[in-house]
Amino acid sequence: SQQGEEDPQALSIQEGENATMNCSYKTSINNLQWYRQNSGRGLVHLILIRSNEREKHSGRLRVTLDTSKKSSSLLITASRAADTASYFCARRETGANNLFFGTGTRLTVIP
Amino acid sequence: EAQVTQNPRYLITVTGKKLTVTCSQNMNHEYMSWYRQDPGLGLRQIYYSMNVEVTDKGDVPEGYKVSRKEKRNFPLILESPSPNQTSLYFCASSLTSGGGTQYFGPGTRLLVL
Questions:
Q1: Is there a contact between B110 and B11 (Cβ–Cβ < 8 Å)?
Q2: B104: which chain A residues are within 8 Å (Cβ-Cβ)?
Q3: pLDDT tens digit sequence for A55-70
Q4: Residues A38, A88: contact at Cβ < 8 Å?
Q5: What is the mean pLDDT of residues A38-56?
Q6: Which of B81, B106, B86, B95 minimizes the C-alpha distance to B20?
Q7: Strands (E), A1-111
Q8: B81 at the A interface (CB within 8 A)?
């Protein structure tokens, strides 16, 4: 299976600004998830969006999914220094029982 | 507290010396998985288990073994480690299938000399 592509690979913003990360894939999916990883630590689940959903919100997080373009985006509004981390998208391909992870976006929020 | 634990957290070993990394979850999850994380390559799945005594290969299984004798435990075995297995390893679990939300352990950083 091919990994998803995340864009950008790295992103640096000022505290208070919004951060947008994108994820593209090539297959049909059942759901797409976003995870966060603080440096060298385990991944933490942020949000799951199903293939029949277009947008989901969780606190300052907003995820969109466009299955026609095979892409998803994660928006973090009003960023904080504590949001500094790597963010990964992971997709459940149709018919699969596993998640396939992208290579991640490294976000740095400057205080 | 619901969690996935891994041991050891850090390990330095030499080529060829068999080692085992343990993974345990206390959430009664059916699905468990091992990943390795390398710079620029993201997370790649090594092996997964859908339930007790049911295991299957992921994307990069060569050089690894697993077993699932109990629901809570899913050890990763490196029979003859090589330097290219130097990596950061994560165990994860999920309630049913692996396509749902996964809960990750804290990671095991392995260096093979």
A1: yes
A2: 35, 42-44
A3: 999 999 999 999 999 9
A4: no
A5: 94
A6: B81
A7: 5-7, 10-14, 19-24, 29-37, 43-50, 55-58, 61-66, 71-76, 85-93, 100-101, 105-110
A8: no
- Chain B hits for A45, Cβ within 8 Å: 101-103
- pLDDT tens, B38-75? 988 889 999 999 999 999 999 999 999 999 999 999 99
Partner-chain contact A30 B99, CB within 8 Å: yes
Structure tokens at A53: 């959903």
Q: What pLDDT sits at residue A4?
A: 62
Model pLDDT, residue A96: 85
**Residue A50 sits at the chain B interface (C-beta within 8 Å):** no
Q: Does A92 touch chain B (CB under 8 A)?
A: yes
CA dist., res. A50 & res. A92, Å (int): 9
SS3 labels along chain B: CCCEEEECCEEEECCCCCEEEEEEECCCCCEEEEEEEECCCEEEEEEEEEECCEEEECCCCCCCEECCCCCCECCEEECCCCHHHCEEEEEEEECCCCCCCCEECCCEEEEEC
